[in-house]
Design brief:
The chain is an alpha/beta fold and about 375 residues long. It has two domains: about 1-245, Aldolase class I (TIM Barrel), CATH 3.20.20; about 295-370, Arc Repressor Mutant, subunit A (Orthogonal Bundle), CATH 1.10.10. The chain is about 40% helix and about 25% strand. The chain has helices at about 30-40, 65-75, 95-105, 120-125, 130-145, 165-175, 195-200, 205-225, 240-250, 275-280, 295-310, 315-325, 335-340, 355-360, 360-365; strands spanning about 1-5, 10, 20-25, 50-55, 80-90, 110-115, 150-155, 180-185, 225-230, 235, 255, 260-265, 265-270, 290-295, 315, 345-350, 350-355. Strand 16 and strand 17 (about 350-355) form a beta hairpin. Helix 2 runs parallel beside helix 3 and helix 11 runs antiparallel to helix 12. The longest helix has 17 residues, at about 205-225. The protein is globular and about 55 Å long. The mean pLDDT is about 95. The structure holds iron/sulfur cluster.
């Protein structure tokens, strides 16, 4: 079993952010922790827990004592597997050696730093609260605190980011030698300040530049011993993120906290994104908090295909055939074999897998399954 806990607090809101996060609400953190504990206590969570993931928002805004409280409430419900992975997202400007050492002592064993880029101008434009020196300091502190499994997030397709900027960011990250790197293309989400800026004429890098950057990163990282195990994720051997990997492979996971989702025994549960409503409701029991949906067999089959295709595992011909037949679709094989010829997919051991070039156009490939 896996658990995700959403910590929806940030010191300020980045201009592209579409996550459920609130700035200037630090005064509500203590109430939120109580509400989360109440939700966990009232849940059917059962062990052994293989992964716990603190995502956000900015989980590293929480002092160690509050994280300890949350971990205790999980432990009161479910045994922790002896090899449990406990990950947390951290913003570089929120941590120092003392705080990171305390996190490590609590049993946190994987950190994920949101770096995004190394150029101060680009970071400022995003609304991030750090510069590259802060990333390096946080990273060194994490090493000193005993973290041996660290991810760094980078973005491409950012306003004002040239290919040379992106390459420089990638080189700086690799000079640190993290075990894991996540690479995300900027998405312009409706309703964000960035979407307004784009409407008003802000120029973003072209699709061609983004494709070049992604391709370059794949090559650069592979040459340096990182394996691409998912569309956006690269790791040194043995350091894939267990939490995400388990979910992509279809394991159950619980979501706790405002806006968190999870899937257990074929039932998807989700929360609303109103912070105060969550704080009010959670102590009265989990039932009132959740929106539940039993997933049909065909939705589950489609999700399994979509998720597996994002990973290096790929999908077997039998599974694809069964899915397409169940949907009354025509044979996908001709189309998929053309993708193989064009170098977007590979076919080995009866499994189709996206190639490095195929990952960039994966959504388009998957859409053809619906024809
Ligand atoms: S730090 Fe992350 S969650 Fe917080 S505002 Fe920025 S993008 Fe959103």
């Amino acid at each position: 079993m896996n658990a995700y806990l959403h910590i929806p607090f940030c010191t300020s809101i980045c201009n592209y952010c579409d996550f459920t996060s609130f700035a200037g609400q630090e005064g509500k953190i203590a109430q939120y922790i109580d509400a989360l504990c109440a939700e966990i206590a009232d849940s059917d969570l059962a062990g052994p827990l293989r992964t716990v993931y603190f995502g956000g928002g900015t989980p590293s805004l929480l002092p160690p004592a509050q994280l300890e409280t949350l971990l205790k409430s999980l432990k009161d419900k479910a045994a922790f597997d002896s090899t449990i992975e406990i990950s947390m997202e951290a913003n570089p400007e929120t941590v120092d050696l003392e705080r990171l050492s305390a996190y490590r002592k609590l049993g946190m064993n994987r950190l994920s730093f949101g770096a995004q880029a190394s150029q101060t101008e680009i970071l400022k434009r995003l609304g991030r609260g750090h510069d590259w020196a802060r990333v390096e300091k946080a990273y060194q502190d994490a090493r000193q605190a005993g973290f041996t499994n660290i991810n760094i997030d980078l973005m491409f397709g950012l306003a004002g980011q040239s290919f040379a900027h992106f390459k420089e960011s990638l080189e700086k990250v690799l000079a640190l030698s993290p075990e894991h790197l996540s690479l995300y293309a900027l998405q312009v989400e409706e309703g964000t300040p960035l979407a307004r800026q784009v409407e008003e004429g802000l120029l973003l890098p072209s699709d061609e530049q983004m494709a070049d950057e992604y391709t370059f990163a794949q090559m650069f990282l592979t040459e340096r011993g990182y394996e691409q195990y998912e569309v956006s994720n690269f790791s040194k051997r043995g350091f894939a993120c267990h939490h995400n990997w388990n979910i992509w492979r279809g394991e159950d996971y619980w979501g706790f906290g405002v806006s968190a989702v999870g899937t257990v025994k074929g039932v998807r549960h989700g929360h609303g994104d109103d912070l105060m409503e969550y704080i009010r409701q959670a102590p009265q029991g989990r039932r009132g908090l959740l929106v539940k949906e039993a997933l049909s067999g065909s939705v589950q089959a489609w999700e399994r295909i979509m998720l597996r295709f994002r990973t290096k595992d790929g999908v077997s011909q039998e599974e694809l055939e069964a899915y397409v037949r169940s949907q009354g679709g025509s044979s996908y094989k001709e189309r998929f074999n053309r993708f193989v010829k064009e170098g977007f997919l590979s076919l080995h051991d009866g499994h189709y897998r996206a190639t490095a070039k195929g990952y960039f156009v994966l959504n388009g490939i998957l859409e053809t399954l619906m024809v």
